[in-house]
Structures are given as structure tokens and as C-alpha cells.
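Lesson 9: reading folded outputs for more than one chain in a single document. The general rule is that every protein is listed as its sequence immediately followed by its C-alpha cells, and records are never interleaved. Here is the first one.
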Amino acid sequence: MKVTKLVSTCDIKDCPTIYATDRGTLLVQGETPTDHWLQIPAHETLVEIPMELIQKAIRDNLI
């Protein structure tokens, strides 16, 4: 899979980030929340990202 960084909230590696793949999908890097009541299947996960990241991606016409 080819991955391209689209947008991040900072320049270090441990910040929320959105990546595009050559599969026509997005990868999202963020915190893994544990204080939710959702039932998530074992093959899936949740990540929490700041709304600012999505707003920046839309504003920059990246998604």
C-alpha cells in the first residue's frame, strides 16, 4: 500500500494525521479512546482526532 501524508496538526510523528492511500481510502492517526460505550468488532478500531484536523483538510481541499 502506498501512503501519502495529507494533513497533520503538527510536524512530529505522534500527532493526529490524515493519510491517503493508493487504494482510494484514508488512514487516520489519532488517540485510541477507551472511555466509550460502543461495541466495536475485533477487526475494527476507533481513533479520536481533533475537529481542527478535518477542518484543515477541507479548507486545504485535501479531502
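And here is the second record, again sequence then C-alpha cells.
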Amino acid sequence: MAVNSKKIAVYVLVVFALYLIITDPAKAADYVQIGFEGISDAAKAIGDFMTWVANGGKS
């Protein structure tokens, strides 16, 4: 019986996240903060690009 590799990857990721939270909550919080900062920076960059496109590509 073949096991779906996507399910295995998700399972491993969840187990790793739980392990990290249990063993070092402060480091887990730092990782979450870094992730949200990355998402925020990406959203800002997309917004800046869309504004540039809406202005006809002018600086």
C-alpha cells in the first residue's frame, strides 16, 4: 500500500513544530515572529509593485 508523501511531509512538519514548542517555547515564538515579518515584508513589496504598475511604471 503506497503512502502519500504529502501526508508524511505534513505529519513530520507537525511533529517537528510540536517538539520545538514543547522543548523551547521562546525559540518557537521567535520563529513565528520571523515568519510573520517575512509575510508582512512580502505583502508590502507586492503593494509597492502594484502601486508602481498603477502609476504606469513611473518612479
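What the second record shows: Helices lie at 5-23, 25-54.
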